[in-house]
Dipeptide transport system permease protein DppC
Amino acid sequence: MSTDYQTNEAKSLLRRVLDSDIWYSFKKSKVTMVAAGVALIIFLAALLAPLLAPHNPFDLASLSLMDSLLPPSWTGMGDPRYLLGTDDQGRDVLSTILYGSRISIAVGLASVAFAAVLGITLGLVAGYMGGAVDAVIMRVADVQLSFPAILIALLIDGTISGLTGGVNREETAFTVLVISIGLSFWVQYARTVRSSTLVERDKEYVQAARLIGLHPFLIMLRHVLPNVMGPVLVIATINLALAIITEATLSFLGVGMPSTQPSLGTMIRIGNDFLFSGEWWITLFPGALLAVLVLAVNLLGDWLRDALNPKLR
């Protein structure tokens, strides 16, 4: 009986999704479907990098400097083992792109999750509590908004590196990047959630929750939060593209992922050093993949914003 009930529930949920306005909007937009397909392919390729990559670029024992700076195999001067050529360390560019996109996407997802949790929490507290708490949180947000996100990320990255003395930089680079990017993006979530919470907190269902004696934290979590998540999903989708770009920028500037664990930004930085000597493939292929990934995610974010906007239905 339990299995049949769960099956029926799953079918009912699937039916509701297929009959929803969002699914109709998705099917109606060919550009969105192509963007979703491209993003899904890149995400799956990154996730399955250990299975798809012909070489392991992180296995230093398998690298040979004799294979460094080989052009793509289809140019006629390359090695058939390396379809997109090799970099200055002899790493296969195709394999490094697969593993590098994995790192870039992981940093983007983790930093967006961190920024969302922090921003949503502060936005809920500021909007629901009001008063001095609201004023302090929003003034901090206003000050941060006066600086570009990349400068905030650079400042935080430099501060953390200074406090730790740069010890084990290669081991902590991922965590430092996530914290730096996350702390530079939380403001958008906080301001959006705060404005929505100011509207929701005076509605009847919140008043009823107060009357029965629920703790303010439970009211914010159970009643207010589900009703302010629509705009948050849009911001998270768009911020994922921004986070990936920010990680690539930081890595390009030399304060992101190290050369031993190259992300897409690190590969572009490495390739830039050899660009004018004719080794164009080291920069071109990761740069192209980065551009395609960011474009696809941005298109999905634009579609989601329109799909969740009741004025455009």
Q: What stands out?
A: The longest helix spans residues 93-129. The domain at 32-59+67-312 is CATH 1.10.3720.10 (MetI-like fold). The CA atoms of residues 26 and 32 lie 7 Å apart. The chain has 13 helices and no strands.
